[in-house]
Design a protein that fits this description.
Strand content: 35-45%
Largest sheet: 8 strands, mixed
Number of domains: 2
Radius of gyration: 21 Å
Number of strands: 21
CATH superfamily of the largest domain: Lipoprotein localisation LolA/LolB/LppX
Shape: globular
Length: 360
């Protein structure tokens, strides 16, 4: 049932059960040799020649193919960490036996419709890092001034720097078993490097979390290591939250460049392009008040990749910080149905360290 809508991370975070444990590896690709598959051949693998990567167990037709796989696992393993190839690495996992080879790499899908959509236009569904923003010395200098203005808009640099943790909660209603049910989505951060997104339904829960350079995907009480591409994309989504992004302003690679003027609705703004970790996010800032009215980036909303804008509203004070509770989303300048409204925003809550614990 896991279909995470990552727009919720724009500004996010609940409870968790016992600490997760590493899950049993899942058989995949109908037992076919992945190296042969990438070369256009469907060769049955030998159960005596296998290896495990992430959540999957791969079988090989020969020791030579196994050695090839282990030398270049990122190339021959299922891409996107098992996320649906059409919906992206942060989606629910695809069926391990519903696959397609594109450009010598293996993708899996949640449905035949997803596989057909990907096959028709793969370039619309494959992530790539953004180039870092560039500009003149004057643009760079103005960029630093706008960073400071944006900090004022959130309540001041001192308030922002005093944040040690965040928890945001979103609730939506859905139909199941002939009745209304609630899904709670929680986003939790312990700065500087612990992030968790969790969905809780009436039937169970799922979560993705990162601690430092390690990440895991969990369902119920079982978890599997994240592929590196999943970890990177996961961190990108959190950094599309302007507050989280500004908290990272002292990290290596943070680059801020003034990018002209424009409007967000009726509000005149200055654009501030910020590059970090392979993602460029452009904030629309009221240069007078410092309030961030929008963020623009190249990403998903929810499946095909395009130009996304999140527009913020319903600004409220929470423990001295000014944060938006409402977010409207557009893709390629057309509104989407992914509007977000947070039920609760907590600043510096005490978060259980078990939420970010490495599974045993």
């Amino acid at each position: 049932m896991k279909t995470i809508v990552y727009v919720a991370i724009a500004f996010v975070v609940g409870s968790s059960s016992a600490a997760e444990r590493l899950g049993e590896p899942v058989p995949c690709l109908k037992g076919l040799d992945p190296v042969a598959l990438t070369q256009g051949q469907e060769l049955p693998g030998d159960s005596g020649i296998s290896t495990v990567r992430g959540r999957y167990r791969y079988l090989f037709a020969s020791e030579e193919n196994k050695a090839t796989f282990e030398k270049h696992p990122n190339r021959y393993s299922i891409q996107l960490g098992g996320g649906c190839g059409r919906m992206g690495p942060l989606s629910g996992v695809g069926s391990p036996d519903r696959f397609l080879v594109h450009d010598g790499r293996i993708y899996i899908f949640a449905s035949d419709q997803c596989r057909n959509g990907f096959k028709a236009a793969p370039e619309k569904h494959i992530e790539a890092d953004d180039p870092p923003p560039t500009g003149s010395e004057a643009n760079l200098a103005r960029g630093q001034e706008l960073v400071q203005r944006a900090l004022v808009g959130f309540g001041g640099a001192t308030k922002v720097d005093a944040i040690t943790s965040l928890e945001l909660k979103r609730v939506r209603t859905y139909q199941a078993d002939g009745a209304d049910k609630e899904q709670a989505t929680y986003s939790r951060v312990i700065f500087p490097d612990q992030f968790r997104l969790e969905d809780i339904w009436h039937t169970g829960s799922s979560a993705d979390f990162v601690r430092g350079d390690r990440g895991y995907r969990a369902e119920g009480d079982q978890a599997w290591p994240m592929d590196e591409i999943v970890r990177r994309e996961f961190l990108k989504t959190f950094r599309r939250n302007p507050l989280v992004l500004l908290k990272a302003r002292k990290e290596s690679g943070f680059r801020a460049v003034a990018a002209g003027r424009g409007q967000v609705g009726d509000q005149e703004v200055e654009w501030l392009a910020i590059g970090l970790g392979g993602s460029t996010n452009t904030l629309g800032i009221d240069a007078t008040t410092g309030r961030v009215h929008s963020v623009r980036y190249r990403g998903r909303a929810p499946s095909a990749i395009g130009d996304v804008q999140r527009t913020f509203s319903d600004f409220r004070e929470v423990d001295g910080l000014i944060v938006p509770f409402g977010i409207a989303v557009s893709l390629n300048d057309s509104p989407t149905t992914q509007a977000v409204r947070f039920a609760n925003v907590s600043v510096n809550p005490k978060l259980d360290d078990k939420l970010f614990a490495v599974p045993e």
